Amino acid sequence: MPDAFWRKSPSIAAKLKEQAAQELRADFTKELEAFYDFFKVDVVSAISRLHLPASFWSFLAFCRETIKEFQLVGTEEDEAGTEVELQMCEPLFRLLISGIILPVLSHPKKYGGREVGLWRCEKGNFDGDVLFNLRAVVAAFEDMVLLVPSGKKALNKIGSRLRPEVLRFILERLMTGGDEPDTIVTVQTFLSHYDRVPTSIYISTSQLVLFQNMILNNVNKIRLTSGDPLDEAAKKVGPWSEEFVKEAKGKADKGLEALYRLEIQHRFFFTDRSMTVCPASKCTVPRRLSSAAGSESHRADEGDVSQNVDVIRTLKEDNPHKVLEDLFRHLPPLTATNFQDLQSEFEALLAQFAAAENDFWEKKLSEGLAAVGDLIDTETSPEEVLDTMASVILARNRHSRYLQSVLAGLSQLGTARDRHGDEIRRTEMELKALIQHSKTMHLPTRILEAAKAESTILRGSEINFLIRKQDARVRTKTGNKVLRLRLADLVEKGQVLACYSELDTVQEHVYLTLWSSDSDVIVHVGLLDDDGFLLEFLKEFPILESMVKQVALADRNATIGLPPEGPVLMKWKSMELASILKSVPPAD
């Protein structure tokens, strides 16, 4: 039979057509599975290797806790119980994909080129084929991951299988992270007050106007109180027109927009003494910026520890759930599975304790029986009671970790305070040295030697010569009888045990001049040259009569810091200081 005639047979042609369709479906399914495997293995792996700042994951962890606390995502439990946790990450998943990954893939030249410092990667990497493939990946992501309504059922199906993989990665990343954003915010708020460097942020015009319009469009959602300062400020500025926003975006695309510098007042305790942990933002802020600013209870608690650290309040002592929780914690294991059996067990235990005349447990079990009766009357199920207990225990455990983290973080305050004190003392000395230099124009020896070697006359040297000539007769003498001591000698003899700040590096030229003023002793600390000229004034402070007497009566091994008030410059042996003070000449 000829081959052409065989193919023209209707039955055979139908079979061939069906066979071809089956092969096509098989090939399509195979390629679709390969496409799914590519996304599951390569794409999810790439997402998991994506380097994001720790603050971003802190933000996602905070969002997850908020979603969980306020039940913002409806959940349905399954047998494994894992889908509930994955659904909690659904909003975070959409934020990660639509807020970070898709914008990066949609604008490769912006995020992979010269604008972000990757100008070497820009050349030859964004040709037509690359951009076409990236657009295809973005479209596939939108159909698969974000479930954009479309007729692409195959991609939507792959997306439904792919989503749990990314959700599981997000959940594992949040669960393994030891970051506590609440703790960091609380600790950094206090530590920032020891930071003297101004804190600024820079924001572009387009970002500023978009942010302003976003606040006005969502003011009902973000307003904390009736007189919210952010609400009031946004209303004063007013909305920006669409034309202005479009113009600002156009300049941003061309790189022509201006940047505005905003200085953050991070040391706000100096100007606003009242502070609190805002229940909404979990940040330590001035009370007027808190969501609880208008509450009477908050005013009553002002100055309490709860103003500085987040405080948890779970169940009252007379709450039936709390009563049963305390009993379950201390009683032997119970076998009841319903409230009626629990009543019977409590009654049996009550009889035992009553016979043993144990008034404490007799009272506790009576309260437990009353609590069980209340739960029966309100038709509460045992599952609800156990769920409430579990959530409260988890909340207390989470808050305990928070307090431990805060305590560990606040231990840094001592170091920060000491460093801040050193900076203040160093700045004070530099300022006084600058003032003194302006009076004498005395230049460092190295500069003078270099100028001499180059046969150069420095302007500062000329002024210094005129000053020295004018004050040649004015030496560092005083009408009072004084006692002058070199700091290096005091340290060498063990009279001064330690020097702080810059004194430790310039002991050779530091002199202490002491004289009497009535019953007090005045101490002058300064740098003197070999001729007795005052090079730099460091400190002058009094030692009052009461302290002079106190030092004389101190223990043999006692130490004392000078000056008596403010940052300590020197640590003395008390007995040695008493001997020095005793040898100070009396006032005329």
Q: What this model shows, in words?
A:
By secondary structure, this protein is of the alpha+beta class. The chain has 25 helices and 11 strands. It has a 4-stranded antiparallel β-sheet. Helix 8 crosses helix 9 (153-176) and helix 24 (545-552) crosses helix 25 (574-582). The longest helix has 39 residues, at 10-48.
Count of the separate structural domains: 4
The percent range for helix content is: 55-70%
* Uncertain ranges: 78-82, 296-306, 473-479
Strand order of the largest sheet: 5-7-8-9
C-alpha Rg (nearest Å):
38 Å
Number of helices: 25
The total strand number stands at 11
Overall 3D shape:
flat
Mean pLDDT: 79
End-to-end separation: 144 Å
- Helix/strand/pairing class, anyone? alpha+beta
Walk me through the topology.
Elements: H1 3-7, H2 10-48, H3 54-70, H4 82-88, H5 90-106, H6 108-111, H7 119-122, H8 128-144, H9 153-176, H10 181-191, E1 199-204, H11 205-217, H12 219-222, H13 229-237, H14 242-254, E2 259-264, E3 275-277, E4 284-286, H15 296-300, H16 320-330, H17 339-355, H18 359-377, H19 382-410, H20 412-440, H21 445-453, H22 459-470, E5 483-486, H23 487-492, E6 496-499, E7 510-517, E8 520-528, E9 534-543, H24 545-552, E10 559-562, E11 570-573, H25 574-582
Antiparallel strand pairs: 1-2, 3-4, 5-7, 6-11, 7-8, 8-9, 10-11
Helix pairs in contact: 2-9, 5-8, 8-9, 10-19, 11-14, 16-18, 17-18, 24-25
